[in-house]
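Hello again, I could really use a second opinion on something today. I've been puzzling over a protein and I'd love to understand its fold better. I'm sending you its amino acid sequence along with the backbone structure tokens. It would help a lot if you went through both lines with me. I've dropped the whole record in just underneath, so have a look.
***
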Amino acid sequence: MRWEVVGTTGVIAAEWTCGVILETHSLYLSMGPEQWFACDLETGEGAGFIVISDSEATPGRNAERYMQSIAYYVGAWLQGDLEMACRG
């Protein structure tokens, strides 16, 4: 798998959610305003965009949740459980 994630500094939304769209051969994660990740499940290539917190109160926390979400949903797909994870 090969992914490219680009980031910019900014203000992180107070409520962090992850919306999932699963198509036949692709996965799209929407993680709040201006944050997303898309992956071609056949080739393993992906791209994403993340907002890096410019606040000293939450350094790295958003990036941690962002990467955990990617790992969770791609891992679920690799295990064949992604459709079930998306439903529940």
